[in-house]
Specification:
- The protein has one domain.
- Helices cover 29% and strands 20% of the residues.
- The protein contains 2 helices and 4 strands.
- The strands form 2 sheets. It has a two-stranded parallel ribbon. Strands 3-4 form a two-stranded parallel sheet.
- It is globular and about 30 Å long.
- The termini are far apart.
Length: 70
């Protein structure tokens, strides 16, 4: 299996990163392969929203890693 190393930074409070806006907005617009390893870091409400969105698309829970930092 060939793994691509890539990160995509979504920011909602500043203009840094690859996408300015909420990560849920980005994910609603984009298709993400279910074999992608997703690392979600931030507010627990955002993590729940992203997790639910990915799960509703059949994303395996083992491919979703989370870290709450505030």
């Amino acid at each position: 299996m060939h793994l691509k190393k890539r990160h995509f930074l979504c920011t909602s409070r500043d203009q840094e990163g690859d996408f300015h806006g909420r990560v849920t907005d980005y994910l609603r617009k984009k298709e993400v392969n279910s074999d992608t390893l997703v690392y979600i870091c931030g507010n627990c409400d955002m993590i729940y929203d992203v997790y639910d969105l990915l799960s509703s698309r059949g994303f395996p829970s083992g491919n979703i890693k989370t870290e709450v930092y505030f």
